[in-house]
Design a protein that fits this description.
Oligomer: heterodimer
Strand content of chain A: 5-15%
Number of helices of chain B: 12
Largest interface: A-B, 42 and 37 residues
Structural class of chain A: alpha/beta
Number of strands of chain B: 14
Structural class of chain B: alpha/beta
Helix content of chain A: 40-55%
Helix content of chain B: 25-40%
Largest sheet of chain B: 7 strands, mixed
Number of helices of chain A: 12
Number of domains of chain B: 2
CATH class of the largest domain in chain B: Alpha Beta
Largest sheet of chain A: 5 strands, parallel
Shape of chain B: globular
CATH topology of the largest domain in chain B: Rossmann fold
CATH class of chain A: Alpha Beta
CATH architecture of chain A: 3-Layer(aba) Sandwich
CATH superfamily of chain A: Thiamin diphosphate (ThDP)-binding fold, Pyr/PP domains
CATH architecture of the largest domain in chain B: 3-Layer(aba) Sandwich
Chain lengths: 321, 329
Amino acid sequence: MKKYTKDFLVSLYTTMYKIRNFEEKAIKLYRDGLIRGYFHPYLGEEAIATGVCAAMDEKDYITSTHRGHGHCLAWGADLKIMFAEVLGKENGYCKGLGGSMHIADYTKHNLGANGIVGSGVPIAVGAALGISIRKEKQMVSTFISDGGSNNGSFLEGLNLAAAWKLPVLFVIENNQYAVSTPIAESTGETELYKRGIGFGVESVRLDGNDVLEVYNTAKSFVDRCKKGEGPFLMECVTFRKSGHHVNDPGLYLPKDKLDHYELHDALLIGKKYLNELAGLSENDIIDIENLAMAEIKEAIEFAIKSPEMSKENFLKFVEEY
Amino acid sequence: MVEKREIMYRDALNEALKEEMIRDDKVFIMGEGIAERGGSYKVTVGLLEQFGKQRVFDTPISENGFTGAGVGAALTGMRPVVEILFVDFSMLVLDQIINQAAKFRFMSAKTASVPLVLRTQGGIGNGLAAQHSQSLEALFYHIPGLRLVMPSTPYDAKGLLKAAIRCDDPVIFLEHKLLYMNKGEVPEEEYIIPLGEADIKKQGTDLTIIAWSGMVPKVMEAAEILSKDGISAEVVDPRTLVPLDKTAIINSVKKTEHVLIVQEAVRRGGVGSDISSIIQEEAFDYLDSPVRILAGLNTPCPFNLNLEKAVIPQVDDIVKAAREVLYIV
């Protein structure tokens, strides 16, 4: 068994816990009318963003999806600025002009969530193309869903990265549903990693709820991308624990699957690792959770108190468009 | 005294690319058959040899994918020039242009920019039929966040392409398929034409004819014919449709009090209609007759060469419309 430091395991768990609770608190804020528009929770998929981002370093890049809060937080986004953005406030990541589906932090190489399913993939390929032209030791991870993997943008991007041997890691988050349509109704081959093989890209399928499995696979691919061996593809099998967005109760999600994934939950698996590999007790874990929760509560207060951009400032901002 | 030099539109574009690639190693170009082959219209000839395959390379036939790659490269510090062989094929990349490139600077509250140039080619001519014969500028004109450039001469093509490459926002650079072999004066020394400055192609006093891209040579020919009949037409070429040089247009209208807009694109929903509405809002009291728009018919383009000519304004049509605007029939 590979050795992991206690700090590393704690940081993985903390990130997953923050994502889970960011989403749950945000859903409450949505129900209270404080968050408007569309809000797509990442509930159940936390291990994927956490494991992949932990394998990368800050000079690398990510592109995210419409279900993007988890990727941003795993990449190191500030909870206060995240909450401020989803509440549409001026000190959010996009000054309230982007919102949940468009959070990005270009200065930190987060190329953003994307409201158009699949469209982040060619953009990731382009970031990798720039890296390749500049001959830098960087790489790009692009997150995509099973739904997005049926889009031409994904397939064209995958082919371009393969043709040009670019340092891209394609991360398919197979949560088994595209809005409400199960993957088996969307394609003739539900093992999506095979698409990578069809394009000549080394590809694997793994348990997307097991943060260490995700991390280990990603780490190997990230390192190999930087040696010029890319691209790679990993299909992370997971399950969306809720509807497509906050207002979708997800009644089409089968009970047996929900029950299965309730026991095979990313946070439960993360907790097991803290206990078995880092020797932490139940109380130690509660302490970690309390610390993270205090941060979340502080961030929500900050966001609620934050001002919105004035109409005057907005009109000045848009003059040149 | 610098000796006058005449070169072709396509060579002027080639020079602009070459000079900008020498100046800035972040500039690179990609497109279908642009490297070894030098492009269908020979705009990129010699660039592969000079700059190598890292900066000049062919793409698969994946317009959406490689344009998106241009967007991603631009977002992360590069200055890509992406060539789409025909503007008709750019319909495959509208998501990356309209939903992505045009939005990032806005949605990021100006923390991101997309310095991407999308070079493509449109217009009618040579019997290429309905899927390769369209003037689609109105689609891009409509979208906030894009610049739109449509040069009509070699001089404008070179100076505007250099400005487009240096622009921090996405630029749609629309060339015209009939202009590539046209010759015009282009100085040896470096120059740039800022985006948003119209050019008065011919001074005149009786009426203003506004035209861009492939219509400009036809309008110039018509203006010559009109001048023989004692009619002095002023020809205004906006050169960039976004930003549009409203001042130059309005000043000319105030001077001549008569306006003809000549547009190759179909009449319905065209840029000409918008220019006309700007004139009536800002210079109505100066007008001596209604603003006239002479445009393409609202139809796909036929293959047959004679019928092809029938769907877009010809020199005779321009002369006739100009006389009608002046009530000289």
